[in-house]
Amino acid sequence: MSPGPDTRHRSRGVAEFAFAIPGDPDQRTGGYLYDRRLAAELPRQGWQVRPVRLPDRFPFPDAADLAATDRLLAGLPDGMPVVVDGLAFGAMPDVAARHAARLRLVALVHHPLGYETGLSPQAATQLVESERAALGHARHVVVTSTTTAQALATAFGVAEARLTVALPGTDPLPVAAGSGSAAPAMLAVGSVLPRKDFPALVDALATLQDLPWRLVIAGSLARDPTEANRLRAAIGQYGLAERVTLAGEVAADELRALLHRSDLFVSSSLYEGFGMALAEAVAAGLPVVAVAGGAVADWMDRDATVLVPPDRPDELALALRLVLAEPDRRHRLRTAALAARDRLPDWAACAAAVAAALDLVARA
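and the corresponding structure tokens:
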């Protein structure tokens, strides 16, 4: 069956789409990194990017934010494909409804908004309902994992034909040299938010004070001051200030240096739409101990990782004890990680999947 004529929106003969992202696009989170790399790669796939910066307060916009978003979308040409980051799309169902017939709306969902840890039951329910309604106005939905695709198909009513999985890419990294210390150096990466559950990691490590180890947590301490204070309190409660370093948000080159000097990567996150920090750890050939929250268990190499269920601090502590106390076990995990690093998806494949979705939307 012929795909039909190419009706992509064109500016001076070049296919063009708008990419609407809330807030500062240079923020150092996995979602914003994904968006930046996608925007950089898509021109190689034949799609030029028109950036649209939406207001900062998504996914909790006020009336002024929604009005500004409405004006920004109203300023785009009829028929233009518009990819809207899910941090905003799920919180703007009425705006999406107003522009659904005129624009070719594509939602980019990293993970459902209502699945964020720390929300009140009422807020979580409202976000799920809002996102379900908004997604009904998207011509297509791009997701970053098969887990998120399944969630949207089963719980949000998105037909599988409207879903495209575009796994995040991972840049090649030098093989980690390790710390060279008798006390294994552990690294955990992520903004200090309830979903990352770093205090649970500290709770687990508090039971391992008979073993030598050090931990660096690299991630913003400013996004949720209450959670940051909870983490600091846990560190102080157990007297671990000399063993646990809160590095705050670090630049890309500093993060690579931390990976290079580490012996073990740890993730205590309760839910991940994919887990880009985990992929970077594997790219560096690091063994991993991780909570299997969200999509993590779907793609992590089981030979390179010790996975534990969410909300089981006893199992997390046991896994860490086994890996820290047994160098041979760490070596086996590292060997598997070195093999798995060559199987990680790349950014070109990610962009090709999104470009195919844009082509599909443009032809529809």
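(Above: one complete record from the training split.) The radius of gyration is 21 Å.
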